[in-house]
Each structure stands twice: as structure tokens, then as C-alpha cells.
Amino acid sequence: MRSSSRLVTLSTDLGSAYAAQMKGVLYRALPPERVVDLTHDLPRHGIEESAFLVRQMLTAFPPGVVHVVVVDPGVGGARAPIAIRTKDGSYLVGPDNGVLSLAAERLGIAQAVRLDPRRVGAAPRVGRTFDGRDLFAPAAARLALGNRLSTLGPKWKPFSWTPPTALVGPARAEGVILHIDRFGNAITNLPATAIPGRARTLSVKVGGRPARRASNVSVYDELRPRQLGILASSFGTLEVAVREGSAASRLGLTVGEKVTLRWTGASPRAVGGK
Amino acid sequence: MRSSSRLVTLSTDLGSAYAAQMKGVLYRALPPERVVDLTHDLPRHGIEESAFLVRQMLTAFPPGVVHVVVVDPGVGGARAPIAIRTKDGSYLVGPDNGVLSLAAERLGIAQAVRLDPRRVGAAPRVGRTFDGRDLFAPAAARLALGNRLSTLGPKWKPFSWTPPTALVGPARAEGVILHIDRFGNAITNLPATAIPGRARTLSVKVGGRPARRASNVSVYDELRPRQLGILASSFGTLEVAVREGSAASRLGLTVGEKVTLRWTGASPRAVGGK
Amino acid sequence: MRSSSRLVTLSTDLGSAYAAQMKGVLYRALPPERVVDLTHDLPRHGIEESAFLVRQMLTAFPPGVVHVVVVDPGVGGARAPIAIRTKDGSYLVGPDNGVLSLAAERLGIAQAVRLDPRRVGAAPRVGRTFDGRDLFAPAAARLALGNRLSTLGPKWKPFSWTPPTALVGPARAEGVILHIDRFGNAITNLPATAIPGRARTLSVKVGGRPARRASNVSVYDELRPRQLGILASSFGTLEVAVREGSAASRLGLTVGEKVTLRWTGASPRAVGGK
């Protein structure tokens, strides 16, 4: 059983106690060591922010893994439950509400189906509020055991959304905040290459707030404690950070807000926000 | 070693850093892949709420697993450290303060013992404040390795408690809040079948607060954003929810509060709260 | 592959979503069951407090494990990335900022190197803000697979710091708060043996606050609900606790504050804070 089953990862906004029920279901079919938690602390009901985090997490993984993602405020409603085979031979399982979209686009969609509860061995439904346990976990178990995607439901065209586009000019860049991490760093969609290296001091304007000065640095250590800085994040895009402090709470930042950086000159050019 | 050892699960209110010490102890005896975390975020010192969550988690699992549960405000005091063999061949290990009671009752008690520190290979005690590491983890390791329950201590009759009873009538149901989840949904002890399907609008009264209107729905998507609703939770009982919001913070709900639902008529009948 | 690879543990302040990227990197080299999470909730940027927690966690483990620790506010800056082989044949991998120091001292340093990115198979760096994923995870994978420490970089003398010393007298003890746990218990550096067993009532003074009375007890159950107590913690040192409540929020305690206990008499003697 061990050698023939794929690894299953779990990424949810459910907290660990609810997610444990998904693990219980998976352990009925798979050796426990083939199931790993990634996170159960995705932003609650935060589909777009989670989509970025999921893409970031999953692209670190080797191919051939079954990734279950549950951020599902519309559970039981109109959104379809789906599974996707990617071009590298991984699988994505979850609600078709956009939370899988960015990872699917990055990895490439080879095939997708709408999960049919009768064909995935779904548990008898005690409610219609926990597809993670009742539908996605059994579907993931089948895929991990080598069942073909086409046996789990009819073909489906997954929902796709385009992340906001960043505008980059010779002296200005406009983007949005995609994610605020637990340190209060605000990860934007602005490419790390947007700012010329020689621009050491920037103006940062977020939403309707007054512009502030920030240093363009490579690492936190180049900032003074509590100083505001702009640097290349581990996502490959620019982040707004405060050394040994929270940029988010200091500036009152929230996900989705517009960020404008200025250094000199004007006339931005469009850059894909991916 | 691998094939002969049972799976051990850990469910605690300790946070992951304290729980890691339990894992260290277990790894001294078992292959690491035979030890899995369920949650370390059970309600702190919340024995009754945890008992519901533990029952809910553990009943999703296959039989034959050793489940360690540590919510133990009375550690080192009068409550006994115990281990239970259930009728399906699983084991429950933890303090005899009620946190195991609901799972034990659901799975059926085949045998129970009071753990004797000298017979479980307990670690030398540096304090008397962490039986999870010093007593329950070593006991679980022994059970996982196939030691018989009777070798770990004398027979014991576990503490048992009856969860609050729900009253269900033709036009009214009275219960309590058992659990508030991380989305702010309030899970009650009211059976999902309490409300006739035709009752589309309900009155919900919690504690001494004014009654509010709520929709009787099947899934969150049937609610308007921020609307209050009553639906069958993934626990099989009714929950009070707000779409894309927190019912708990909007209504100020806490665990243990009385919930009264009304739709028409009167004269409730008693229904077991299990 | 399985039998020849060591276990890798992960302890970070990164939260689970960032840590998942470290796991993705490790899974490219190791069987997933050889990688386990300890905690991703270490105090954010809290190097000294984390150092105590890490020592406490790691000393519960069997020898021969590769422990990765990431609390790294100075990532990319002057602090060196290092790996240490301990006298029991374990490995410690992380930033040389002190977070490894107490565990290293306890386990004994056999050999240490500064990690050379080119020699650990470091991932191409998209930023310089996530050595956990880009440097420490690949280094840990190499060690887990049996590579010799000396192949990963040049010799290094790790940074070492001495935890604050406790003063213990016949009627008074002075120490500091090393850690506040999730229950609000304040763990000090005062040895559990500091107070004579016959001293049943103590005076506790923290920082500049007024002294308060506390009971000298062995277990929480000896306290009345909400009563302040001093007892031997699971760390082997004294803790300030409130039964079924949080000593930290009741007294407003923070890590690093000075704690003075008095019972009778005077003239403290020095005791190592380890």
C-alpha cells in the first residue's frame, strides 16, 4: 500500500481540529505517513489571499503530489467541487471558487473534473457544510491510490481569475497588497525588479493615506529598527516591511489596498501581475 | 518495529511547542511516522467543549489507534491519569476529568485502567505539571508497541458526564452552545432534525438577549452576506451562523449559553443531547 | 532511501504557510515521513525566549536527529547561517543569532560550520528574506542523507550567550521571566529547589509592581481558582501561575522582567541560570 500511494497535503482555513476529521477519513484509506499538513491557518474565507499562498506553497513541492485545498465559504452552494491534474502530474482538489486558480495556472492544467459525490465514495453527508471531510478527503484518497481522474466525475472547466496587474514606470510603480504575513510584512504584486537598484529612498503611498519615506533595501538588517523599507520578498515580489515591527499595524494596511511607490520621473508600463 | 506499532494521535490544548516535547518522548520508542498531531489548539482548560471536539475528531478515525488527549487543568491533582480500550480496539489516554468521556461513550468502553507511573515507564518528574510528556506519552508508546492495557495499572471506572439535554417541540427547541468554531459559528446540541423543513424563518434567542430572526437553510450560500441563519452543522447538530461573518462576535455568544429556537406552536419533547 | 535518512524537525516563528515551503524543499530530497513539524509558533523575532523553548523541546528528543530552527530577524544580514553537530550525534541548523545557543550548550558542540550556499545546494535566491527555505532546508536535507558536516562550509565558532543568572538566598530569590506560555504561566530561571518546602506563603514582586502574596505549591490543584501560586514548572524551574487563569494578564507580566520571591531571612547565593 505504501509504495503505491501518492503523498496528500492539506491546506485549509479550518483550524486543526476540523482538519483532523479530514485526516481521520484519509487514514481509513492511506498509510498515515502519506498525509501531511501544510497549514490550517489560511486566511478565513480569504479566497484571493489564500490563492497566492497556495501557489507559493505548492510550487515548492516535488511533482506527483495530491494537494487538497479547502477555503470554502460557499460550501454546499453553487461552486463546484473539483479536481485538477496538472502538467507535472500533481493533483489539486478543492472548491472551484478561485482558491486553486493561481496554482493551477502556474503548474498547468492537464485535465479537470467536477467531483461526483457518488463516484468518489463520499461519506454519508451529515450536513452540507464540510465538503473537506465528506467529499474532498475521499476524492484525494482515491487519487492517491492511483484512481484515474476521469473516474471521479465529468469534465470541467475550472474557474480562472486574473490577479491584479501591476504598473511599473521609470519612476513609479503601482500595485496592490496580496498578503500580509504574520510579521506584518505586506507582500505586493510589484515585481522585485520594478525599482532600479540606485533608487535608495522611495515614497510609499497606500490607499488614501499620506505618502511615507521608505528605504529600498535588500535585507531587513539594512534598516534601522522600526524603519520602513521596501525589499524583495520571498515571493519574488516587493514587500513593505518594518524592521523588528509590523508594517501592517504601523501603517494600518489591509489586503487588497493599492500601493504606489515613487522614486523619480513618470510614465508607467504595464507588467503582468503574475 | 514499523509494522508492529499502532498509530498514536495527539490532541491537546498545549500549543505546539509543549506538545513537541511529547513527540520527542514518543519518538524515543516509536517510528516518527506513527505519531501524528491532530490539534494543539483545543480550548484552553475547556474540558466540556474539548470533549465534544475530541469525540467529533476521533469518530472520523479508523479503529486500532492510540489517541492521547491532554486538556488537564488539574494536572498532578486528584483526577486520575487513565487509559481506556474501546470496543473497536482503539485506546484513549489522558486525564480522567471528562475530556475523554464523550468519545469513550461513543466508541464503547471495553476496559479502563488508572495509569501507574512506575508501570508505564514514566519519565523522572521534573515537576508535576506536565503529565502529557511525563506520563501519557510513555503510556501511549507502550500501548502502541502492543503492551496490554492491564500491564499499565489497576482497573478503573472512568468519570462520565452527560451532555446537556436538548428539548424539541413542534414549534420550539431549547438547547445549548457546545462549541464556537474559528469562523464564529455556534454549534449547538440541537438535533439537525429538530426543525421542520417547511419552517423557513425562525426566532433565535440566546441567553438573556433579545430574540432575532434567522433563516432556516441548508447551506451558507442560501443566506445573504451577513445574514443570520440556522443550519445543520458538520457535527450533525444545528449551528447558528452568519454568512461571511461571525455569529459569535455579532451576537456575543459564548459556549454553554442557552439557545431557544421558535417557529410555531409549543410543547417540547425531551431529546438526548448526544 | 528511508532507512538511510535521518529525521528532520522544524521549529520556526514563521507560521505554517511559510514553513510549508521548507517542507516542499525537504520533500524533494527526503521521504515525507522523515520530516516533522515541532512548532511554527515560536515567539516572533523572540530569539532569547525561543532559545529556551528550543532547548526544552530538543532535549526531549532521541539522538541522531537534524533539528532546523528558524527565528531569524536578521536574515540575509551579518549573522552567519550555521550547522552544528552535537556530542550526541544530532544536528542543529539555523541562524547564528543565539537561538541555537542554549540547545547547543546543553547537547555539547562537537563541530560547527558556517553554511556555504554553493555547497549546500541552496535554491536560487528569489530574495534574501527566507533562508529557512532557500538555505537551511537544503542543508538539513544533505545532513539527513548522511553528508558530512564539513562538506557544507568552513569551520565556525557559534555565537554563545549566557542566560541571566538567578540569585538564591535563604529567604529570597531573584530571577527573570524566560517564557510566558499560552496559559499565561510565567516560567522563570529560578531553580525549583530555591524555595524551602516549608515556606508555604511567598511574596512575589515583578518589575516595579507592588509585591503580592502567592502560595508555594506542587500542583495547580492546591490553589483555589484564580489564586496566585509559585510551583515547579515542566522546565524544571519555578513558574508564576494562577489557577484557571492567566498570571501574565492578571499581573501584566512580560518576558525578561525581574522576579523577586521572598519568604524569610536574607543574603542570596549565586546559582547558574542554566
Please tell me about this protein's structure.
The structure is a homotrimer of 274-residue chains. By secondary structure, chain A is of the alpha+beta class. Chain A has five helices and 15 strands. In chain A, helix 1 runs parallel beside helix 4 and helix 2 runs parallel beside helix 3. At the A-C interface, strand 2 and helix 2 of A face helix 1 of C.
Could you name the key traits of this structure?
homotrimer, about 270 residues, alpha+beta, Rossmann fold, Elongation Factor Tu (Ef-tu), domain 3, 2 domains, seven-stranded mixed β-barrel, six-stranded mixed beta sheet, 5 helices, 15 strands, about 20% helix
- Counted by DSSP, the helix tally of chain A is 5
CATH names the topology of the largest domain in chain A as Rossmann fold
* Domain module count of chain A: 2
Question: Overall 3D geometry of chain A?
Answer: elongated
Largest interface: A-C, 39 and 33 residues
**What integer value in Å does the Rg of chain A equal?**
21 Å
Detail the poorly predicted runs of chain A: 265-270
Task: Quote the beta fraction of chain A.
Answer: 25-35%
Structural class of the helix and strand makeup of chain A?
Answer: alpha+beta
Oligomer: homotrimer
Mean pLDDT of chain A: 92
Count of individual beta strands of chain A: 15
Q: How would you spell out the order of helices and strands of chain A?
A: EHEHEEEHEHEEEEEEEHEE
What is the CATH architecture term of the largest domain in chain A?
A: 3-Layer(aba) Sandwich
Task: Please state how the strands of the largest beta sheet of chain A are arranged side by side.
Answer: 8-9-13-12-11-10-14
